Amino acid sequence: MKVAVLVGGVGRRIGMEKTEITLCGKKLIEWALEKYSSYQTVFVCRDDEQAKRLSSRYDAEFMWDIYKNVGSIAGIHAALKHFGSCVVTAIDMPFVKPAVVENLYNEGKRLGCDVLLPKHEYPEPLLAYYSERAVDELEKAIVRGDRKILIPLENLNVVYYPVENLRKFDKELISFFNINTPEDLKRAEELCSKMSTGEL
Q1: Cβ(124)–Cβ(163) under 8 Å?
Q2: Which pLDDT tens digit goes with each residue over 81-111?
Q3: Residues 51/45, Cβ–Cβ less than 8 Å
Q4: Neighbouring C-beta atoms of residue 177, cutoff 10 Å
Q5: Which residue, 46, 45, 75, 49, is CA-closest to 61?
Q6: What is the DSSP letter of 167?
Q7: Residue 157, φ and ψ in degrees, nearest 5
Q8: Which residue intervals of 65-181 are DSSP H helices?
Q9: ∠ CA(24), CA(102), CA(151), 5° rounding?
Q10: 155-183: pLDDT as tens digits
Q11: Is the pTM of this model over 0.85?
């Protein structure tokens, strides 16, 4: 199974690189390295400088965006060009359950869709299955200047997957929690404590 982890964010709102954020004694990149160690995993950086810096410290596969400074859409595009079909997630989503990742991958493959996109009141493009068939539409959008990932998806075979289907793997759906602000990090520490005591 293939997983691409987007690590490119500079973390402007939280004031530090997303990879360097420490949660419950471990950096977010260490959370991801541990969680996805049994899968074929690539870490997608924003540029070669970030990739070189991380690869000098961690034993994993790192690559970088082909199109620079256009955000997560470029990370997804680069992952698919390099890796083929995979589940995409982000470094700032530390509580993703492996069973959720596996279910999205298997369902995406089974349904033969271009994208399997979890959806509650809004879609979750940064924890989703993408087929390599999505590459061309993503590239066209980037070249046009469209940075929102949902725009090119309008031209693809997208299956919107109710997140309720994932509760059997993740009762509280904490897989979709991400850290963007100091307040998010504080909440993440609380969730982490609950996980360690078995409450989650």
Answers
A1: yes
A2: 999 999 999 999 999 999 999 999 999 999 9
A3: yes
A4: 16
A5: 45
A6: T
A7: -80, 90
A8: 72-83, 98-111, 135-144, 150-153
A9: 90
A10: 999 999 999 999 999 999 999 999 999 99
A11: yes
Number of H helices, E strands in the chain: 7, 9
C-alpha 169/C-alpha 167 separation (Å) is 5
Question: Diameter of the chain by CA atoms?
Answer: 49
- Residues in the chain, total: 200
Q: What is the mean pLDDT of residues 131-151?
A: 95
Q: How far is CA 196 from the centre of its chain?
A: 23
CA distances in angstroms from 53 to 19, 30, 34, 163, listed in the order given: 11, 15, 19, 36
Tokens of residue 148, six digits: 């929102």
Contact 51, 61 (CB under 8 A): no
Helix (H) or strand (E) holding 117: strand 115-119
How far apart CA 139 and CA 91 sit, in angstroms, is 23
CA distance 136 to 158: 15
